[in-house]
Amino acid sequence: MSFIQSVGRRLGLAAVTLSLALGLVCFAAPAANAETQNVEMTSALQFSPREIKAAPGDTIVWNNAAGLPHNVVFDDGSKFDADEMKTLGKMLGKGQTQITLPADLPAGDYTYYCAPHRGAGMNGVISVQ
Ligand SMILES: [Cu+2]
């Protein structure tokens, strides 16, 4: 193998390695930026914090530690995954329920409430930037 061929081969390998590395970084970037936001469903009939700021791709987790049944119903859930909306709407006695905000979710305030405790003021908002 001539010197030129050898150098060419090495450069080719370097280019392939660099492309693979860049590809991995680009592929991993959205997941690395996505955050998980936690909201407590309290026995005082509140979502805490009531308002959270989030970005498309974030996961919102509602945690019910108290054991008093709550659910999550969006005033307008049309931009969210229908199956996830159905799951959030089920009464949760204890444990967690969650959604992942769609990557193409428009910025805005997404308000929600707990159906049985709506009259008591149990509501919240996800402010998407
Ligand atoms: Cu409730």
List keywords for this structure.
129 residues; four-stranded mixed sheet; elongated; binds copper (II) ion; 30% helix; 8 strands; alpha/beta; Immunoglobulin-like
- What average pLDDT do the residues reach? 86
- Given as residue ranges, the uncertain stretches (5+ residues, pLDDT < 50) are none
Largest sheet geometry: 4 strands, mixed
Each distinct ligand: copper (II) ion
What is the count of distinct domains?
2
What is the CATH superfamily of the largest domain?
Cupredoxins -  blue copper proteins
CATH architect. name of the largest domain: Sandwich
Helix-strand sequence: HEEEEEHEEE
Classified by CATH, the class of the largest domain is Mainly Beta
Cα(first) to Cα(last) distance is 58 Å
Instruction: Work out the helicity level.
Output: 25-40%
Tally the helices: what do you get? 2
Q: Approximately how much beta-strand content do the residues carry?
A: 25-35%
What does the radius of gyration come to? 23 Å
Structure class: alpha/beta
Q: Please name the CATH topology of the largest domain.
A: Immunoglobulin-like
Which strand order do you get reading across the main beta sheet? 2-1-4-6
Approximate shape: elongated
Number of strands: 8
